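Re-run with default settings, no changes from the original entry. Doing this only to confirm the output is reproducible before filing.
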Amino acid sequence: MMKLGLTGSIGMGKSTVAAMFRDEGVPVFDADAAVHRLQGPGGAVVPAIEARFPGTTGANGVDRVALSAAVLGDDAAMKALEGIVHPAVGQARADFLRDHADAPLVVFDIPLLFETGGERGVDRVVVVSAAADVQRARTLARPGMTPDRFDAILARQTPDAEKRARADHVIHTDVAMDTTRAQVRDLVACLCPDKRR
């Protein structure tokens, strides 16, 4: 099995590319989705989060605003939260690998792959990229997004140029959708010859 790490900065089209891998029959583990499930209604980490941060959960699982307020600017609190969430995400990842043990290729969709050292846990890295003006326009079109918030998010992420330089493969999304899909298909065909059409 080849483990492919998929990453890209905000607004680059990573979720769209992840869906294209799924369309090609490649199993995709979405780290963010795993966290949302774990913290959602009946989620596995909800009781531990409530015990450590009282008042931050309810019938709908974790109240993200309340939890953010409880850990923001408090390194010890953040480490405590990570100590609850990270092992559970690790277990979800292990379950995913077990469930897809026969797959020749799997994708790990990890937004902060380089920032967390996640590239060490995969065989190859794919970076999704677009021109800076395209990225900015896409991101600012999101509900609630402001230029200041966008700049603050970018400041916490590894620059796109560095991501591309460190990648094994780059998929461009500032082109026609069919062109991006063709890049994904070509990569799958290259890495899994038996998947060629």
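The first strand starts at residue 2 and ends at 7. Strands lie at 2-7, 28-30, 57-58, 61-62, 105-109, 124-129, 169-172.
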